[in-house]
Request: fold
Amino acid sequence: GAVVSQHPSRVICKSGTSVKIECRSLDFQATTMFWYRQFPKQSLMLMATSNEGSKATYEQGVEKDKFLINHASLTLSTLTVTSAHPEDSSFYICSARRYRVTEAFFGQGTRLTVV
Amino acid sequence: GENVEQHPSTLSVQEGDSAVIKCTYSDSASNYFPWYKQELGKGPQLIIDIRSNVGEKKDQRIAVTLNKTAKHFSLHITETQPEDSAVYFCAASPLTGGGNKLTFGTGTQLKVEL
Reply:
């Protein structure tokens, strides 16, 4: 149990285009999902927290108009990188938690390359 | 906010030896401490966690200890195997509810050599 699936695992896009990354909880209802960004050989940096049916809460310094997060159902959250630039290239990871359950389970990550 | 420090940043051990990774945290409100293993190109995998009402927890070759007074917790891996090679992250968060955020340590690259 507690499987989180992230899609796609890798994506290459051109500068100026938008990319959508999906995060699904396959066998549980995720009331809260988190989106992280990870640079090579660095730790995970929390970008935003999303609760089902509510607007996402962004961490300081994260542009909410650039990184659009939608958590429309209890099993799906999406991150859209709008007008992508090469500096947006990174490893993006989602995690999900059940209501009133502490453990957070992570997706397999998405390697975004903007050319 | 919470600050989690993790040491060492790299650790090489011989197969069969033990490995210990240590973390300290700053926020006394933190009472949940998970450890994650991340293999190259993959997302972190929860391997063990501990809550503040417990001082030690074991799961086969893996154990975690917690000293709330000193605000530090450690991961112990015994009888290391090559497949234990990965990056390990500690984290801390308050326990109250599913919306609380994890604060991660900086990671430890563990290499188990044959």
